[in-house]
Amino acid sequence: MGLKVKGYVLGAIAAATYGMNPLFALPLYSAGMTVDSVLFFRYLCAIPILGLMIKLRGRSFAVSSKQFGALVIFGFMMALSSLMLFMSYKYMDAGIASTILFVYPVMVALIMATVFHEKASTLLICCMALSISGIGMMYKSPESSSGASFSITGMVLVIISALTYAIYIVWVNKSSVKSLPTLVISFYVLLFGVILFAIRLCINGSIEYPSSDQWHLWLCILASAVFPTVISFVCTTSAIQYVGSTATAILGSLEPVTAVVIGVSVFDEVLTPADLIGIIMILTAVIMVVGGSSVPAAIMRIRRMFPRLPHKSV
């Protein structure tokens, strides 16, 4: 498997697993746990898993002083992004929040273009527009949602989450940590990220956790540590290193598809025609990104099958 293909596969896995956030977070909220408590246990449980993976792979935990400083910042950025997204679930339906979150591929493209003067190809621009349009087709209005109604506060929180995540995606690709093993980057990001939640819990003076008779909620915490945290973070970092920030961000549009699949299969939600059209548009955009330069060539080959008719002179 080529490095680019590997990057695309990892980007798709990262998107799908990150889209599982509401599946594990909402039951914990219903049980009375706060956002900080949920995220604290989620990060805390993920750290030893990554540490064990690093030891089994024979990797070193050593980083330079420059990389250490960057990893501290990355940890707080990812923690802030998670915190803002999870807080938004308190103000609006998780599906609406997830829809708004997907302005981050646009933010990534804008940052790459304005700060690093990277010229986005026509293909990437078309794919981005197609994926965002597909996500728009899957949007559920507040009236049709079973959760909390749309709110300005919730929208601001999601926008901050998206911006922080976009900066993280770009910065990892451009900083000194790019040369570090993916597992090591993810380990330190979570290690420093959990500090933010620990500080907030100390300030608030309380921490909530499932009681002994709520063992199934501990499974939710463990699952949230494994799927949308360890697997998603590791695959995202690897995808950035293999295919770059913009392509990884566009592959992230697969996350709402995951949400729809979970909604239909787990919560007995109805797959509407608009959902189906949106999924097809997103998958088409992803296929075009993965196809890369071969897509325009394939289009040209098809075009040559239909030669132009000669113009008749008047």
Overview of the molecule:
- The chain is mostly helical and 314 residues long.
- The chain has one domain (3-304).
- It is built from 14 helices and no strands.
- The protein has helices at residues 3-18, 21-30, 35-56, 65-88, 94-101, 104-114, 122-137, 152-174, 182-204, 215-243, 245-251, 254-266, 273-291, 294-304.
- Helix 5 (94-101) packs across helix 8 (152-174).
Quick structural gist:
The protein has helices at 3-18, 21-30, 35-56, 65-88, 94-101, 104-114, 122-137, 152-174, 182-204, 215-243, 245-251, 254-266, 273-291, 294-304.
Features:
mainly alpha
Whole-number total of structural domains: 1
Q: What's the Cα radius of gyration?
A: 21 Å
Strand content: under 5%
Mean pLDDT: 81
Principal-axis shape: globular
Major sheet summary line: none
By secondary-structure content and strand pairing, the structural class works out as mainly alpha
State the helix count: 14
Distance between the termini: 57 Å
**Order of helix and strand elements from N to C terminus:** HHHHHHHHHHHHHH
Helical residues, percent? over 70%
Oligomer, anyone? single chain
Compute the number of strand runs: 0
Which consecutive residue ranges, at least 5 long each, have pLDDT under 50? 143-148, 298-303
